[in-house]
What does this fold into?
Amino acid sequence: MAKSRSLDGSEALVVRPFIQIIFQHGHPNEVGVNGCRVEDVIDVAIDRLLDFQGRNLACDENSEALEHLSLAREALLKRKRRREQQGVTNSQVAHRSLDIGAAVNQ
It folds into this structure.
């Protein structure tokens, strides 16, 4: 695979021992789906830990990891919603992470 970049300029291909992840590079509407999203990687880890929890490998640490991965997935969903609300979806424009009202009250 030729060296390619994700929309944010980071490497689209991540290779580590025993794992290779190809992240989406280019906008899907323009180049089609050619890789995964961070959310997809989180979902794979969640599925794996849920499998462990359903067998003799269940433990409190797996449960804690599942909780944190779920929080990460929720944070990325919040980011997506804010980008949609602020009209910057499908662009390289940064969104505001804090609501204006929340920032004033802090």
